[in-house]
Amino acid sequence: MNRSLELVKTIAEDRYCKEHQRNERINNSLSIPIAIIVALIGVVGFFLINIPFKIINTPGAWVVFFLFVGSLMILMKYLFRAIHLLGKVFLGMIYAHMPAPKEINSYAESLERYYESIQENKIDEKVEEDLRGFLVDRYCSCTENNIELNEEKSFYLTKAKSFIIIALVFLMISSIPFGILHYREKSLSKNIQKVEIIKEK
Question: 56-60, 64-68, 118-122: which has the highest mean pLDDT?
């Protein structure tokens, strides 16, 4: 095996291992975005269940209500986009792996039978040389495939994180009109109770 091929094998083998480690790091980094998304879904559900519809017909409440609905819709838009991108990170990414020892042994045996059939001299050397070349090619092709997938996963994950940040910003924005509406609803309820008490007297 010449030195250049040995060098290519060493580089490809090292990068192959690093790309699989990189994939593991990417997968491990998904826990925090997923936890935030779950929390956001819970908050959005809470908002939708507790929309104070009673206060909408009061003066000025429509403006606050539309601010709340608008910011909530934008929040949900970016939340769904983040979920979609994280789904791409999880699904459809098929990483390449080196062949199993059984497959390598089967290939070596087929090479040996081939060289025996053509009555080649130095069969062992030929088999070893071809097998090394085969492994170098597989290391290179697997590594190239995995580099491309990791770049794609990193891109999707980065975009998903940016959408989550935007969703968090609009969560804070939407919580302001939501709080105002609930405060006004409580004030209205207190006023109604006072009027009822006065009427009873």
Answer: 64-68
